[in-house]
Write a structure and sequence with these properties.
heterodimer; A: mainly alpha; 9 helices; B: little secondary structure
Chain lengths: 215, 10
């Protein structure tokens, strides 16, 4: 494992910890899209079916279990916790996420490494992860004001994707057998979706001002 | 075959 991949995993972990901290400390999930969180839970559940079939390392197994457990915990809190669920911006979280599910599934049926149950679901999880942030970005844009922890959450999530691209560039030169086109192309699309957010994030950081997205 | 390499990324 190279440094970019490791830092990518760590920023991913940090983003989830920030989200858990926000929900735990403020008992609020305002600004957070339940649709995006549900899509992420589904991404992890479909991708990590290999927990039952392949053992890669203790690190790998532990991280997979952490991602599954934390995503399910977040969804549970947003749906069921008596205080947290009241702060959910349901009227702003209106992205038609079923289209993302359908499109990802159809694409996975067409484009996969092998036509097998686990492989098609793996491709599905990759495609779905690439677009799962869209309901979240739309919610932020609609609410305009982004609270500090929510802004940091999305920033670290974007940083994780950017670091994975550096990881692939590194692997491409070091390990010529590494050719995961589905993951790499989807990863590029996914990272591009953050470009607009990053732009406004850095402007607010430079001006030392609160993060605001244009309507 | 390359597709049999386990998927080591998260």
């Amino acid at each position: 494992m190279n440094i970019f991949r490791f830092l990518g995993d760590m920023t991913h972990l940090i983003s989830i910890l920030i989200l858990l901290l926000k929900i735990y400390a403020t008992k609020s999930c305002s600004g957070i899209s339940l649709k995006t969180q549900e899509l992420y839970a589904l991404v992890f559940l479909t991708r990590y079916l290999d927990l039952f079939t392949d053992f890669i390392s203790v690190y790998n197994t532990v991280m997979k279990l952490v991602f599954i457990a934390s995503s399910l915990a977040i969804v549970w809190c947003m749906r069921n916790h008596p205080l947290v669920r009241r702060s959910y911006d349901k009227q702003l979280d209106t992205f038609r996420h079923y289209f993302l599910l359908l499109a990802s599934f159809l694409l996975a049926l067409l484009l996969h490494e092998k036509f097998a149950f686990q492989e098609v679901l793996w491709a599905f999880s990759i495609y779905l992860e690439a677009v799962a942030i869209l309901p979240q970005l739309v919610l932020l844009q609609r609410s305009g004001n982004v609270d500090n922890l929510t802004g940091q959450y999305v920033f670290f999530l974007g940083a994780y994707r950017a670091l994975y691209i550096f990881n692939w560039i590194y692997r491409y030169f070091i390990d010529p057998h590494f050719t995961r086109w589905i993951a790499c192309v989807s990863g590029l699309v996914q990272t591009a979706l953050y470009a607009d957010f990053f732009y406004y994030y850095f402007i607010s950081w430079k001006n030392n001002a609160k993060l605001q997205l244009p309507a | 075959a390359k597709e049999d390499v386990p998927k080591d990324e998260l």
